[in-house]
Design goal:
It is a single chain. This protein has 12 helices and 14 strands. The chain starts with a helix and ends in a 9-residue tail after the last helix. It is α+β, with helices and mostly antiparallel strands. The chain folds into 3 domains: 32 residues, no CATH class; 128 residues, Glutaredoxin; 135 residues, 3-Layer(aba) Sandwich (Glutaredoxin), CATH 3.40.30. The chain has a 4-stranded mixed sheet.
Length: 326
């Protein structure tokens, strides 16, 4: 594999800035968060008293918008958001000029006052908002309604596209919408969980995922529990929805609110969505998602992040070694 010189230079610059190792993948590189290293917090993050009403007013006075950023300690994807995405000149300028970002700990106990004066802890708000991934960014309108939600890590190119989409949108971008898939209409056999993969046009990240993740024996073993369906947005086939309407694959993707590819919908045997992957992930998190749905673990543990931690502990107890970003 030939690695562009500019990519190597950027990796070297990050090494100088943060003193951490860098992994260069087929299409995207990830900085490794070494054990015990704290994730830096940019000085332009808002110093908030966690009263969202006040924060919205202050943002409006400055003609800015409020962003809720959910993170957790030791999160390698949060680390890469900070060290790679937020350091990119275009992203950095836009975020500092247009947004007030409030940092919230997924497991935190600080009290947040909502717009209706309800008080919740950070972790309770995360549950209320169904935050299943870190990082999660929720961009709010001036009245506190969500304009855009980014669940999980996005590399710079796709993050910039999301900001472009947000700035040109004439109406709020919907939250993730749960869906019921008609197994009969789509020709999917009943009785097994379903994994629907969406691949995009000229999608470098799709090719990377195919090579790095879908070629792994452990991933293939987990996928055996699923009926698999691939929706190719390049060929853009017609999809018959459960209500009988026919729409193009691209229209369906827009209705679902998917914005990163490859994206995955994981459904139970009844065709009900239980988890989606609409972000850049590596094998550990993807395999955890597959096991979470196929094993029915979502029935006893509604918070996917807790299941991830539990699965990691279980693998370590068996003496199995793994790297979160491998």
């Amino acid at each position: 594999m030939v690695i562009p010189v500019i990519l190597l230079r950027r990796c070297f610059l990050l090494l100088l800035l943060f003193g951490q190792s860098c992994v260069i993948l087929a299409e995207h590189k990830m900085m490794i968060l070494e054990k015990g290293v704290q994730i830096p917090q940019p000085d332009w993050f808002k110093e908030s008293f966690l009263d969202l009403g006040d924060d919205l007013e202050e943002a409006a006075d400055e003609q800015r918008n409020l962003v809720l950023y959910f993170h957790q300690a030791g999160c390698p994807y949060c680390y890469n958001l900070i060290t790679q995405v937020f350091t990119h000149p275009d992203v950095n300028t836009r975020m500092q000029q247009r947004y007030d970002l409030v940092s919230l700990d997924l497991w935190g106990d600080r009290t947040i006052t909502l717009l209706d004066d309800t008080e919740l802890t950070e972790k309770a708000l995360a549950v209320k908002l169904k935050v299943q991934y870190t990082p999660t960014l929720i961009f709010l309108d001036s009245d506190g309604s969500p304009q855009l939600r980014i669940d999980g890590y996005r590399p710079v190119d796709t993050f910039i596209r999301q900001l472009d989409r947000l700035q040109t949108a004439t109406k709020s971008v919907p939250f993730q919408a749960e869906t019921t898939i008609s197994s009969e209409v789509l020709g999917i056999p009943l009785g097994k969980p379903v994994a629907i993969r969406f691949i995009g046009d000229k999608c470098d990240h799709c090719r990377e995922f195919e090579t790095d993740i879908l070629g792994r024996s452990d991933t293939l073993e987990l996928l055996k529990s699923y009926t698999q369906l691939t929706v190719d947005l390049e060929t853009n086939p017609q999809i018959t929805l459960p209500d009988g309407n026919n729409v193009s694959a691209r229209t369906w993707v827009s209705m679902l609110g998917l914005s990163y590819f490859p994206a995955w919908l994981l459904l139970d045997a009844k065709g009900e969505e239980k988890l989606r992957i609409d972000a850049y992930v590596r094998a550990f998190h993807f395999n955890s998602a597959l096991e979470y749905v196929s094993s029915g673990a979502y029935l006893r543990e509604p918070e996917f992040q807790r299941f991830i931690n539990e699965r990691g502990d279980r693998l370590r107890a068996k003496g199995l070694k793994f790297e979160i970003l491998e």
